[in-house]
Design goal:
313 residues; two-stranded antiparallel sheet
């Protein structure tokens, strides 16, 4: 049960961070398409708001990373219920995950200090480059875990999670070189949401009987540390992998729909309308009145010129 609660917690944390990043990045882009650039974090309430509220996103990220770090240390000390003892491979993989999470924690604290004080002036592109390295390490860790897992289902889940981390790494690297590339900035937030969906799917597939594919089952007495869910027949394993692939495609579709919904909602909120595929600001009353006055003046001058030419003739 504790493993399922942790997966739900991870899913909620990733999806909230990703959705918030997506909304803020889209808002900045639509308000100022030429001047907007990617940011490692977005201040809540603007740059002149309350200090606690301004860095709320970073505070929540630090809290979630601390919880994840402690969880990985505790999991590393578990004894494997299947092998009746602590396995070195499992312990080392958990410690490696803890080290990657701790690195993210240090990077987040450094980002907080860089923005709140003058003692650590680090530009945004450096943070994106460092984040790309850490996401690549997370991808490497997930790939290693998938290669040594006893459970076929958990191996598949870890493999997909690693690929999403590789996507996040690539997007951070792109943003470190091209900070004004909006599609990469928005995709980074979407990759967090996708990782959150997959964390939830991992918890449901491994620890909830109703979501375990047909032909697979949880081993009696296994707490979900290693190989807790097994597929006895090859046909059952292939069917379970195919189902997970289908679920992943569905989650990708949900993420794309989420992006369209956020983009359209933010566009309406900031007063942007579409015209031939591009977006332009809606005219305000003052601009409309000025345009009308200009048109009337032009028409009046045109009539006067025609009258003068008729008189001279």
């Amino acid at each position: 049960m504790s493993a399922l609660i942790y997966q739900i917690f991870s899913s909620a944390a990733l999806m909230s961070q990703g959705l918030y990043h997506l909304i803020c990045a889209t808002t900045n882009h639509l308000k100022s398409p030429r001047d907007s650039a990617a940011k490692p974090f977005h201040a809540v309430g603007g740059h002149h708001g309350n200090r606690l509220l301004r860095y709320l996103q970073l505070y929540i990220a630090i809290l979630c990373l601390i919880v994840a770090f402690i969880h990985q240390l505790v999991v590393a000390s578990y004894s494997d219920p299947l092998l009746l003892g602590s396995t070195p491979v499992h312990a080392f993989l958990s410690l490696q995950s803890a080290a990657v999470i701790f690195s993210f924690l240090v990077l987040t604290v450094a980002l907080l200090l860089s923005d709140s004080t003058a003692s650590l002036p680090v530009p945004a592109d450096i943070f994106f480059a460092l984040a790309a390295v850490l996401f690549f390490l997370q991808y490497s860790n997930s790939s290693s875990a998938a290669a040594v897992q006893i459970s076929d289902l958990q191996s598949k889940l870890d493999s997909v999670s690693g690929r999403i981390s590789a996507l996040s790494s690539s997007l951070c690297l792109i943003l470190s070189c091209f900070p004004k590339l909006f599609i990469a900035d928005a995709s980074l937030g979407l990759s967090f949401c996708l990782q959150g969906f997959w964390a939830l799917q991992t918890g449901l597939t491994l620890y909830v009987d109703a979501f375990i594919p047909e032909g697979c089952h949880r081993l009696l007495g296994a707490g979900g540390v290693e190989g807790s869910t097994k597929c006895e027949l090859d046909d059952s394993k292939l069917r379970a992998v195919a189902i997970l692939d289908l679920v992943f495609v569905v989650y990708v579709f949900f993420v794309l729909v989420m992006f369209l919904a956020v983009y359209c909602g933010v566009a309406r909120a900031v007063g942007i309308r579409s015209r031939f595929g591009s977006y332009e600001a809606l005219p305000i009353a003052g601009n409309a009145a000025s345009a009308t006055a200009t048109a009337v003046a032009v028409d009046s001058n045109h009539i006067q010129m025609k009258a003068m030419s008729g008189t001279q003739a």
